[in-house]
Amino acid sequence: MYAERLLTADSPDEVRAVIDELEEFLSKQGEAYEIYWMPLGSDENNYSDVYTQASSPMAAFSELPLNAEDSLTLRFYEEALAIGDDPSASSMKEAAQSDWVDLDAAELEIVADGYAPQEGNLLNLTVRDNGKGKARSEFDDFVGLHAPGLKKQEYDFLQGQYGMGSTAVMQFAGNIEEEYNERAFKFIASASVHEPGEWSWTLIHDKPNKSQVEYLTVNGEFPIFDGTFGGALTEKFRESYPEKYDFEKNTTTPDPQNHGAFVKVYNYQTNASRTMISGNEGFRHKFERAVVDSPYPIQLTDLRYNSKFPQSYTRGFRQELEDGNEHLLEGKKHLTVDTGSETLGERDITVLLFKDDDELGDAASEKSKFVSGTSTHKDATGRTGVQKDHAVMLTINGQTHGSKKEYFLKSLGYSKVASETVVIAEFDDLANLGMVNMFSPSRDTLKDSPQANKFLSALEDALEGSDLLTEEEERRRAQRGNAEPATDTDTFAEFIDRNPEVGNFMATGERIRAPRIRPSDGGNESAPESDDDNLSDHTDTSGGDENGGDAPHAPKLPTFLVPIEEYNPGSEEHVLWEADEPMPVETPVNGSATVRFATDAQNDYLTRDVLSGTLEVSCPEQLRAIELQDGLLTLTVDPADDADPGKETSLSVELTRPDPRDCSAIDDPTDAYPECVEADVATDGGVNVDTASLTARCQLEYVEATDSRDSPSESESDGEGDTTDTSGDDGASASDREGTAGNDGVTDDWGFEMPDIAYVHEENWRINDDGEPINPEEFNADDARNFNEHTLIHLDPSQDSTISGLSLTINMDAAALRSFIVKRNVKDTWKEFVEQHYELAMVFYTITMYRDYVDEYGTSFDDTGLITAEVVTQSINALAPTIMPTIIPDDQLDRITE
């Protein structure tokens, strides 16, 4: 019989062969019999309906057993009506607990066949039930896209009221990597409990070249047969079972059925490993996150393995946990959350926190089936574990209708407990309006709706205030590495005190502004040696020769300063302002203006030690930057605080000139002027020198605001020249500020505390070649997950989004640090010095990067599964090859190495 062969087929290729044989058989019967493929739902453009029903394979597959549960409940409902009872229930869960549902008579089974991973790695899944089934007159409900949902809406206790989902499996069947997947098949056979033994069947397949999903008919009618069905599947099971085991004793198999349904999908691409579906890895526990609390027991049977016990039962995640596994929990809390939504009202929330591995000891392996991470099985490459995808589950009648990933909990600051926390929110009593507004029709994702957003906001508030999670998070953070902090509070506060621009950035987010005077890039002077033990930056402010080269030159005084009306980049020919009145300059009220002047002042005129001048402007508080380079004096001017469109303000610029006769480096004052300028001879035989200041005038005319990205607070250096401020910091120096660094790590001027900083050594994380800790007493499993010799830091996110709330752990046995000390042969007396600079670099690189990323993106990157703290961790760790040479430059090595 063709239906039996399709039920027991091990691959899509076998299915194709059966159809070919059926076509050949019909062709021999004459023209009266022929296979016709009909479009699903009588819609020739049905691809969009089928391929938008689910976003993940397990959510799609779970629709099949849930439809079977509907069929079982409807069977018991009609049986109760037939004997005069008045059955009723407002939900599937309530129905299953009523006296008119006979759980002992219900059969619901998921059967796997195909090939085990080591034998071909092909998984077929069959869902079998003995529910109401479909009469031949109603069998077309299986191929109608919405018909089943319309009928189910008459009953409050049925789940599939949308009429979507049963065909969602098609997009995950067959070889989904092929451009045209011609081997996506789904087999269906059913008979009604009211017309037992009268079976109908069909085969649904994907026809991508036609952009169509089709089902099989013979001359436009469904194929039929009479009698019982399913016995061939039992016989296949019996034949594959090892003779050394007692089949009858170890397995539970049904009698051939005269009613119910069989639905099979071939070569199904689950996002779990394809090991035994009845076992403790892969399919089963992924399935239990989709079916959290099943009203019916579901038997899982795997025909692919020669195992003594190829079967198990599940009723979902919740009941599996409650069935003798609650000793794995650190705590369990039931919360009632007011969503602030009229349609959602209050929601019941269950928070489950599992114990950590160290506390569980040998029992840690039992916990993995509930909160396993990414599967390490060889056929599960790229597939995520149950916890990563479904840390928060929103359920209706025990079925997950939407979920949030592990990163949702991490984004709330629970980096240590997120991987071991499960949250279940129940929506069993949700009215149809609320369900439509809250969940997508495919029942596996949340909508971006006011109701969903209100719920998520209320959930975040509830979880952030959870004592259970907060206390355990703090306890686990305190256990990491060594108890002694890596950077003490005095060191942290003193660094901030010496570098106020860092403290200002961390407190306010205001970036460091470009220097007011930017020296040119030329010069060949050597950087001076450090006078103390601090590693200092040295900036060469020498000018270069008159042509912009690097050769030394004689200092000269400038002789002209003229505003540039039209600047021509890349050319020395600019249009100069020749009028007597001030040159107008348009300035946006929220941005800066660039004003340029032509001059013959040398590049280092404002910064050199001899024969240097100063620049005075009429509004110094608005002057942000000064650039003197190759005959151009460029000023960057911010708008006044009271700037309004149409308002004008004058800007006068004065370039002072010193007396060359007072300069000991000049033998002849005439040498202080360019060759084209001659100094007059004085009556006393000396020289009349011109030391009058050079002046120029502009008129700032304020115009409408530009894009906010140009505002002064957001602007950065234009990248030209060095960024060392040689005229003094715009902000007050440490000695000018009233506040001082407190020894509790609080910086008085900005009011934030240092983060929680600790360190780890290799004994905390290293294991030997056999996977055993090198120092069992100091070993920490959490540190071992986060560190190896190539890891510099691990950052746990802030629970309050501030710098102070971060937990930073520094690896003091990172290869980058230890290799530098050994290979550079650092003196013993300087090793602590090098380690301290490494620590400071890790601390301040990390927290400033975190501050910047949070300002830009928030504590998590929505819809990416990335937490800002994790991105910062990866970014800092990527610096490992270059970190030490950049914080300990070559010119310091001579004094700290042997």
TrEMBL record:
According to the record, the residues making up region (Disordered) are 465-557, 639-669, 703-750
Q: Where is the composition biased (Low complexity)?
A: 724-734
Q: Where is the composition biased (Acidic residues)?
A: 713-723
* Superkingdom classification of source: Archaea
**Protein known as:** Uncharacterized protein
Organism this protein belongs to = Natrinema gari JCM 14663
